[in-house]
# Entry
Amino acid sequence: MPIYEYICLKCNNRFAMLQSLHPEEKNTECPNCSSREVKKALSSFSCSTGSGSGFSPSTPSHGFGGGGG
Ligand SMILES: [Zn+2]
# Structure
């Protein structure tokens, strides 16, 4: 099941809620202040790893040979 992020407009609390395939924002309340005034936040995938080597250079992919078919 997908997890949606919400932001409480009252206490600015950020929490994640497990929503079904059909998300309903009406029954979403803040677990901190139990407020219904929440806003759906955009899920951002940020991958941060420890300090180390950066991204590897693009490797030469296999050339597409052959004629039309
Ligand atoms: Zn709240």
